[in-house]
């Protein structure tokens, strides 16, 4: 099997990270504690985009849980915010 490209490896990391933190209770969603743990463990180096993170979580977490689609939306928002921070288009 061919070596995964960096983007393919990143997709795998996104999936595995969600799975790792969503494990307790409903394994298909992150509850508030699981989401908090994911952010502390996996996103602690991106303090510059913390306002975007907090705002996005507020928008997504209206029902008290974050499913995979909402998680991917959060990651996409963070990617966009990071691009702005580092001056990319
Ligand atoms: Ca869960």
Summary?
By secondary structure, the protein is mainly alpha-helical. Helix content is 65%, strand content 7%.
What would your notes on this structure say?
With 89 residues, this protein is mostly helical. The protein has a domain of 41 residues. Helices cover 65% and strands 7% of the residues. The chain has 4 helices and 2 strands, in the order H-E-H-H-E-H. Strands 1-2 form a two-stranded antiparallel ribbon. Helix 1 crosses helix 2 and helix 3 runs antiparallel to helix 4. The N and C termini lie far apart (35 Å). The site of calcium ion (CA) has 9 residues, from strand 1. It comes from Oncorhynchus kisutch (Coho salmon). InterPro entries: EF-hand-dom_pair, S-100_dom, S100_Ca-bd_sub. Pfam families: S_100 (PF01023). GO terms for molecular function: calcium ion binding; calcium-dependent protein binding; transition metal ion binding. One of its GO terms (cellular component) is cytoplasm.
The secondary-structure element order is HEHHEH
Listed once per kind, the bound small molecules are: calcium ion
Number of strands: 2
Q: How much helix is in the residues?
A: 55-70%
Q: Could you name the ranges where pLDDT drops below 50 across 5 or more consecutive residues?
A: none
* Count of alpha and pi helical runs: 4
InterPro entries: EF-hand-dom_pair, S-100_dom, S100_Ca-bd_sub
Pfam family, one: S_100
Organism: Oncorhynchus kisutch (Coho salmon)
GO molecular function, one term: calcium-dependent protein binding
Features:
89 residues; mainly alpha; binds calcium ion; 7% strand
């Amino acid at each position: 099997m061919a070596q995964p490209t960096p983007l393919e490896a990143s997709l795998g990391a996104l999936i595995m990270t969600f799975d790792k933190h969503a494990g307790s209770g409903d394994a298909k969603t992150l509850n508030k504690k699981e989401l908090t743990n994911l952010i502390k463990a996996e996103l602690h180096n991106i303090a510059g985009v913390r306002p975007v993170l907090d705002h996005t979580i507020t928008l997504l977490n209206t029902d008290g849980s974050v499913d995979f689609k909402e998680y991917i939306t959060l990651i996409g928002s963070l990617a966009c915010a990071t691009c702005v921070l580092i001056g990319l288009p």
